[in-house]
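Dear colleagues,

As part of the handover before I leave the project, I'm documenting each prediction I ran so the next person doesn't have to rerun anything. This entry is a single chain, and its sequence is reproduced below.
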Amino acid sequence: MYRIGKEEIDAVARVIESGELFKINGGPLQESKNLDREMKELFGADAIVMTSGHAALTAALIGMGIGPGDQVVVPAYTYIATAMAVVAAGAIPVIADVDESLTLSPRAFEKAITKHTRAVIPVHIQGFPCKMNEICEIAGKHNILVLEDACQADGGSYNGKRLGTIGDAGAFSFNFYKVISCGEGGALLTNNRTIYERALIYHDASAVCFFGDQLKDVDEKLFCGSEYRTNEISSAILRVQLTRLDGILADLRKNKKLLMEKIAPYCDFVPSNDIEGDCGTTVALCFDSAEKADSFTKAEGINAISPINTGKHIYTNWTQIMSKTGAVNPLMDPFKMEANKAIVPDYNNDMCTKTLELLAKAVYISVNPDWSEKDVEEEAEKIIAALK
């Protein structure tokens, strides 16, 4: 979490004092309802705030009608939650390489398409925008739905359009490590009415028809779903955080740009698909060997990490996916379902070696929006010394 303060404390106190902590209530605050509305106003798409980014991804896939018999293309570099959301919908994830930008390769995506491919999930990892024009063009040509995983890119943009609003649906995350946070939370964005209504039902199936007038303008039939409903305290925090979002992004981008300018003569950067829309959370360096990248991360005074060492963000560490363990009960396991029998890939550690090579040669340096120019100068001096 980058910034939190008295405003969030006051927002929480306001909810507690009202006694209305439940999302659907008759009280005057209506934090969750107002949060959905404010997100829609900011992002230009219908929004449903829920408990996590994984919940938003899963609800979006359900809303898209994805299920057994379907394949969904996901990048080899993303948090395991992306692939697990596909499995939660009963479908099969197909893993494709990233390119030099460390985001989904449009070429690898197109190569992974089969007659069973129903959706693709481009992931704006570390706030780096994907090549959305190319991905959407390929998806449109093959009648494939696009679900943007913007869980690490709250508020970012591509060609002037907010990430999460370019495809058929998008997902945000608001856990502790994201651009804005309420500790844990997520949101689904979409301008597709069918996806929205189904996701609304799915994310709160046990309460949506019993509390408030949530089904007032809903035409989709009710079905059994899950319970990813948020609460008034989380929503109150997020309403304040939402007002901070663009300020945080502006300062992140300013400090990232300044840091890059100072160290540019001494290094190469991972290419960006839209440096202006990039969230600015991370400066990504590119070395010509994994050994040099590793040596740099171990240099004295350097607070850096190579993405190859980020655990569950790398497909080789997706234990449940690689071992094809989709559920405790085998009849509920998508990897064992009859409808998926012929479409489960042969997952192996060598299937996306290009991704592993690119990640091993990259290094991340985190950016702080609250750095002063002096702080950036000192950070740059340490980086330059290590590079030399």
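The longest helix spans residues 232-263. The mean pLDDT is 97.

All the best with the project,
I.
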